[in-house]
Amino acid sequence: MRQVDAQDLKHTGRLGQIGICLGKLFRLFIYQSDWKVLPMAAIIAGLVAMVVGGSTFVNMEGTQTGTFALTCVCIWNGFFNSIQVICRERAILKREHRAGLHITSYVAAHMIYQMCLCAIQAGVTLFVCVLVRMPLPETGLLIASPVLEIYLTLFFITYASDMMALMISAIVHTTTTAMTVMPFLLIIQLLFSGGFFSLPASLNSLTDLMISKWGMQALCISGNFNGLPSVTIWNTLVSVGGGVSLGNGMTLGNVLAMIQENGGREVILQEMAKMSQNPNYNYDLQNLLACWGFLALFSIIYAFIAVVFLEAIDKDKR
């Protein structure tokens, strides 16, 4: 990696320094193969969409599984983007800071660059989902196009995760430590998402601090989770119905078949769904905007913490 010229830094203001750092980052993207994160995002999205995408936004169970998987994809992409970017150039950053580089300019350049990268990754992820014919909501809450609304949620999840990884990269001192910490952060995000695993009541409050919670919640809101049918009980009855005798030669399977022929299946599925509705997933614009707001707030907080730690880089003895 080419070190920024000290004279360029010394006689350049904060905005100018952002431009210099951005130029360096985009050159690294092209010449040091940082672009490899894009095909990686496509491969991961393709695998997830093929496995769980068929019932996502079709029924409650499929939507819960599918949105959780999509959230995991975005968090992984964001973490992998920037978990090493600062710690791998820490020695260079220390010299450039002493030569006049403002830490705020340095972090702002990374925020802008990572924003562009996350925007592309979110687009790649959604494009692959559409390519493998993953069902999407028919309408959007805020935007007429549900595709654009889902895209914005994927972007916010990816960017918030990216900024968390950037913060960790600013705190730790080696790439080895950064890569060691990353799996633990991912596991915490998945376990405490609040929408997939049941947690003790004493731990429920921790979910509010998780990117995964607000990301999954936003996707479920856009997918109108509470308006979808629930199929678990019906499918279970169908699977055992042939072996359950009701007398007079009738089985549970025969009864279920008659109900389906008379159009009663959908009514039953909707009634079952009422027992699984989640008020956090209400199809409401304010709910969606609140989720986006939390993800944006997390991004800002993580970037601020990164600045705070990097301002003390001159005191670093390691």
How are the elements arranged and paired?
Elements: H1 6-10, H2 14-31, H3 37-52, H4 60-82, H5 90-98, H6 103-131, H7 146-171, H8 175-191, H9 211-222, H10 232-241, E1 245-247, E2 250-251, H11 252-261, H12 264-274, H13 285-310
Antiparallel strand pairs: 1-2
Helix pairs in contact: 2-6, 3-4, 3-6, 4-6, 4-7, 4-8, 4-9, 6-7, 6-13, 7-9, 7-13, 9-13, 10-11
What does this structure look like?
The chain is mostly helical. The chain folds into two domains: 264 residues, no CATH class; 45 residues, no CATH class. It is 67% helix and 2% strand. It is built from 13 helices and two strands, in the order ααααααααααββααα. Strands 1-2 form a two-stranded antiparallel sheet. The longest helix is centred in the middle third of the chain and has 29 residues. The protein is elongated, with a radius of gyration of 24 Å.
Please estimate the helix content: 55-70%
Structural class of the helix and strand makeup?
mainly alpha
Q: Report mean pLDDT, rounded to a whole number.
A: 85
What is the number of E strands? 2
Radius of gyration: 24 Å
Instruction: Give the number of helices.
Output: 13
Largest sheet entry: 2 strands, antiparallel
Q: Give the percentage of residues in beta strands.
A: under 5%
Model regions low in confidence, pLDDT < 50 over at least 5 residues: none
Q: Note the gap between the termini.
A: 21 Å
| Whole-number total of structural domains | 2
Strand order of the largest sheet: 1-2
